[in-house]
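Hi C.,

You asked whether I'd gotten around to modeling the 230-residue construct. I have! Everything is below, sequence then structure, no commentary in between.
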Amino acid sequence: MNTQVFADIFTPPNVRYILIGLRTTLFISLATVAASVALGSVLALCRNYGRRFFGRIASIYIEVFRSTPLLLWILICVFMLPFGTYLIRGGLALTLYTSSVIAEIVRGGLNSIAKGQFEAARSQGFSFLQALRYIVLPQCFMRIVPSLMSQIITTVKDTSFFAQFAIAEFFFNSKNLMGVLSKNTVVSSAHIFVLYCFIALVYFVINFSLSCIVRKLARNEQGLSLHPEQ
C-alpha cells in the first residue's frame, strides 16, 4: 500500500467533509443524551413513585421501546413525521429509544437507595419531592454514572444508523467519500480498506476514551463503597 492512497483520501476538502460529519455525530450524541437523561428520569420517577395511571403509561413506554429495534423507530420517525429535517426526525427517534434505556438505569439507581432515606427525610420535615430532589436523586445519579456512560458509548455508535437515511453524520460522510473519489481517481480495494479502517479508528478513539472514563468512575465508586467513612 503506497502513500498515494492516503493522499487521495485525506485531501483538505475531504478532511473538512469528514470533520463536518464528525461534528454532526457528536452534536446528535450530546443532544440525545441530554434529552434522554431528562425524559428517562421522569419516566423512572413515574414508574417507581407515580400514581397508577402515570406508572402504567411509563411502564408501557419503557417496555415498548426497549423491546423493539432502534432502526424501526428511525424508519417510523424519518418517513412518517410531518415536520423537521431528517436529522431532527432521526434525533427524535434516537432520543425516544435511548430514554427508555436510561429510564431503567435511573430506576435501578432509585431502587438501590434505602427506603429509610425517605423516612429520615420526612422526620426532618422534608416533603416527598424535596426528599427526591435533595437526598435521593443526587445519590442515585452518583451510583449510575458508570452505567450511564456505557449508554452514552452505545448512543455514539447508534448514530451510524443515520447513514442509511442520507443524514450527513460521520459514518455517512466518510462512506460518501467513495463517490467523491471515484470522480477523480480509480477507487481500489486499498482506498476502501484505508477509509473503513479510518472510520473504525475514529469510533474506537471516541468510545475507548469514554470507556476509560467509565472504568475510572467505577473504580472511584468502588473505593467510596469500601471506605464510606471517607
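If it helps when you're writing up: The radius of gyration is 22 Å.

Thanks,
B.
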